[in-house]
Amino acid sequence: MKSVLFFSFFIFLLSVTFTSCIKDDCTSMVEVTHAEPIIVTADEFRVDITSDADHPLEEAGKIYVYGNLLLINDLNKGIHVVDNTQPENPQFINFIGIRGNVDMAVRGNYLYADSYSDLLTIDVSDWMNPFLLHREEDVFRLHGWRDEGLVVGYTYETEYVEVDCNNQWRGGFLPFADQESASWDASGPSGFGNQNVQGQAGSMARFGIVSNHLYAIDDRSIHVFGLTNPGLPDNLNKVDVDWGGIETLFPYQQYLFIGGNTGMYIYDNSNPSAPVYLSQFSHANACDPVFASGNRAYVTLRNGNQCINAENQLDVLDISNISNPKLIKSYPMANPHGLSVIEANLFLCDGEAGLKIFDVTDDHQIDKNQLAHVKGGHTYDVIALGSDHIIVTGEKGIRQYDTSDKRAPRELSYLPIR
User: Fold this and answer.
1) 324 closest CA partner among 301, 299, 295
2) Contact between residue 207 and residue 216 where contact means Cβ atoms under 8 Å apart
3) In 10 A of CB 159, how many CB atoms?
4) Is the residue at 334 inside a domain?
5) How far is CA 213 from CA 29, 72, 234, in A?
6) Does residue 65 lie within any of the structural domains?
7) Which residue range forms the structural domain that includes residue 128?
């Protein structure tokens, strides 16, 4: 009896399937997401800078310290100027509006900042009244250029569409137009400027100033500008990095350490106008900033938008032989970003895991010598102004800590996203 029932059911299924296949009007609804490119034309971003003391901090990016000033990039919008004379009570004093700004550096009374593909020189002898001195066009190579402008992002729209049942496609992502990817993650009152002050950037920076030269990288090249006349940087050289995918620049001693998707590259900068490739340490595809200290280099590797399958780890490298860097040991992390090392203490921004502090005296025991873990907030980059004072930027804003006691960092102040 069971065999008869099973056979009858099988015949029924076969007939239904056959009938469905011969229908001409069998359809189903699937969800489709369209992407509309956001395009900025050259005329839209090649405009004068603006100044606004009341502009809120919306999306904190890279940070830069110059004397008693803390500069905070508001991603693609400009630079917030903060009086940090009292770290317990930092004060926003101005906002310099710069379209497409991500990076910055300061020398004396001059602020150097990117504006999408251009390099701007801004007079900041009075931080409350900055003015644009010079725009060097088309310095940086950017992905996403079209005839009509630069693709800087996308807007998304979802809808349901009717498709034929025989179509194996079951929904997904479609561009409105021919889509290209954009490379976007990818220094108040006068008297703050001082020709003798050395600015300090975080480890995620793409700009650096050394020996009266400004270095700036895009994803494939090192651009070298002479600052003999700081108000009009001289475009001296472009050094192509054959591997491409470079992301961060860390000048140290007479070398330039460059972090890229596939490795850390070291350039001899003995001749500041013409950096020369010296050596590299290769790794699997990963996003990585570099920080060098003594005869060690610390590299954080993480996955992300352009490094999907990367490991999340801290690599400790021996650079005592600068021509042949070698891995000492790797340590697993959550999603490490920027870092800083001072007096054998490593301050590491571990993404959503927060801020971690390690004693790095023993290269082989760093994981066992974690001194503190400050949880909360997606941390991005850190600048150590000394062993007892650090500034941390993250998804929710900027925090400063007193780290006199490395095992118990004390928050000094918090500048939130508004």
Assistant:
1) 295
2) yes
3) 10
4) no
5) 60, 22, 9
6) yes
7) 28-194
Structure tokens at 345: 């203490």
Q: Tell me how far apart the alpha carbons of residues 133 and 123 are, in angstroms, rounded to a whole number.
A: 6
Per the CB < 8 A criterion, the answer to whether 270 and 306 are in contact is: no
Q: Is residue 104 part of a domain?
A: yes
d(CA 80, CA 186): 20
Q: How many domains does the chain have?
A: 1
Residue with structure tokens 């895991």? Answer: 353
Q: What is the CA radius of gyration of the chain?
A: 26
What the block records as the tokens of 374 is: 């400050």
Strand partners, 200: 65
Mapped onto helix, strand or coil, the DSSP state of residue 188 is coil
Strands 296-301 and 313-318, sheet pairing: antiparallel
CB neighbours of 164 closer than 8 A, spacing ≥ 6? 26, 27
- Take residue 371 and report the two structure tokens written for it: 């001194």
Residue 231 CA to residue 206 CA, distance in Å, equals: 20
133, 319, 324 from 148: Cα distances, Å: 27, 46, 46
- Kindly give the confidence (pLDDT) of every residue in the chain, 418 residues in length, as a single tens digit, with 9 standing for 90 and above: 444 444 444 444 444 444 444 445 677 777 788 788 888 887 888 999 999 999 999 999 999 999 999 999 999 999 999 999 999 999 999 999 999 999 999 999 999 999 999 999 999 999 999 999 999 999 998 777 777 777 877 888 887 777 766 655 444 544 444 433 333 333 333 344 444 577 999 999 999 999 899 999 998 999 999 999 999 999 999 999 877 688 999 999 999 999 988 889 999 999 999 999 999 998 756 667 899 999 999 999 887 655 555 689 999 999 999 999 999 999 999 999 999 999 999 999 999 999 999 999 999 999 999 999 999 789 999 999 999 999 999 989 999 999 999 999 999 999 998 8
Asked whether residue 178 is assigned to any structural domain, the reply reads: yes
Q: Strand pairing partners for 398?
A: 393, 415
Residue 282 to residue 303: CA distance in whole angstroms: 16
Are β-strands 131-136 and 118-123 bridged in parallel, bridged antiparallel, or unpaired?
antiparallel
C-alpha dist (Å) from residue 82 to 63, 146, 192: 11, 37, 11
- Beta-bridged to residue 273, according to DSSP, are none
Q: How far apart are CA 115 and CA 358, in angstroms?
A: 36
Q: Measure the CA–CA gap between 59 and 387, rounded to whole angstroms.
A: 28
